[in-house]
Design goal:
transferase; 39% helix; 213 residues; Glycerol-3-phosphate (1)-acyltransferase; 17% strand; acyltransferase; alpha/beta
Length: 213
C-alpha cells in the first residue's frame, strides 16, 4: 500500500507542477514530525486533499471518501491501495469513526478529514473532534486558496496551502454538545486566521449545488 501511495503521489506532484507551476506552502514547520494527527480543512475543491498530502509529505494519510466512488472496481482497488476507506454519507456507521481511529493508533498513517463533509457547506460536524479525542492526537488545521476548478489550475493562478499550529483538545474532558462546539470553534478560528494570513481580503463563495434530474 505504501508503494502505491508514494507512486501515485509522485505522479500527482509532477502533473500538478506541469499544469500550474505556481504552488506555495506556508507553515510546514507546524506539522508534527514524530506523531500522527488529524489534518482538517474547509472543503473547497475536490483536488485540495492532493495538495495537502503533497505539502505534508513524507507524512502519509488515510482518507475518507463517499462509498459511491468504490462502485467502480478499478477505482475502488486504487483507492484502497492509497489508504482510502468508504463512508456512507447518508448513514455513516461506526466504521466511519473506528477505521480512522485504528489507523491513528496502530499505523504510521495520519488522517485527513474535511469536517463540513462537502464543498457546499461550511457547517462543521463533530467527526474530526471525536476521531482526534478517541485516538488521543492533535488536530492540525489547513486551508487552501486558489482555483476551485481543475480547469482553473491551467491559468497558472497561484495555489496556496497554509498549515496552522496543532490544536490540542486534551483539555476537553467530554465530547458532549458543548465540548464538540468548543472544538469546532477552535477549528473555525484557526481556518479564519490562516485564510487571513494568506490574503486578508479572501472570501470563499460556496458553489451552487446542481440538483439531480
Amino acid at each position: 500500500m505504501t508503494f502505491m501511495y508514494r507512486f501515485l503521489l509522485g505522479v500527482v506532484r509532477v502533473l500538478t507542477f506541469l499544469i500550474n507551476t505556481n504552488a506555495r506552502y506556508i507553515g510546514r514547520n507546524n506539522l508534527p514530525k514524530d506523531e500522527n494527527y488529524v489534518l482538517v480543512g474547509p472543503h473547497r475543491t475536490w483536488f485540495e486533499p492532493l495538495y495537502f498530502a503533497m505539502g505534508a509529505w513524507p507524512r502519509k494519510f488515510s482518507f475518507m471518501a463517499k462509498k459511491e466512488l468504490f462502485n467502480n472496481k478499478f477505482l475502488g482497488f486504487i483507492l484502497k491501495k492509497c489508504h482510502v476507506f468508504p463512508v456512507d454519507r447518508e448513514n455513516p456507521g461506526p466504521s466511519a469513526i473506528k477505521t480512522p481511529v485504528r489507523a491513528l493508533k496502530n499505523t504510521d498513517l495520519s488522517v485527513m478529514v474535511f469536517p463540513s463533509g462537502s464543498r457546499y457547506s461550511d457547517d462543521l460536524k463533530g467527526g474530526a473532534a471525536v476521531i482526534a479525542k478517541m485516538a488521543k492526537v492533535k488536530i492540525v488545521p489547513a486551508v487552501y486558496q486558489g482555483p476551485l476548478t481543475f480547469g482553473g489550475l491551467f491559468t497558472k493562478k497561484r495555489v496556496t496551502m497554509a498549515f496552522g499550529e496543532p490544536i490540542d483538545i486534551s483539555d476537553i474532558k467530554k465530547l458532549d454538545k458543548e465540548g464538540i462546539a468548543e472544538v469546532e470553534r477552535r477549528m473555525q478560528k484557526a481556518f479564519k486566521e490562516l485564510d487571513t494570513q494568506i490574503n486578508p481580503d479572501f472570501v470563499y463563495h460556496k458553489p451552487v449545488k446542481k440538483e439531480k434530474k
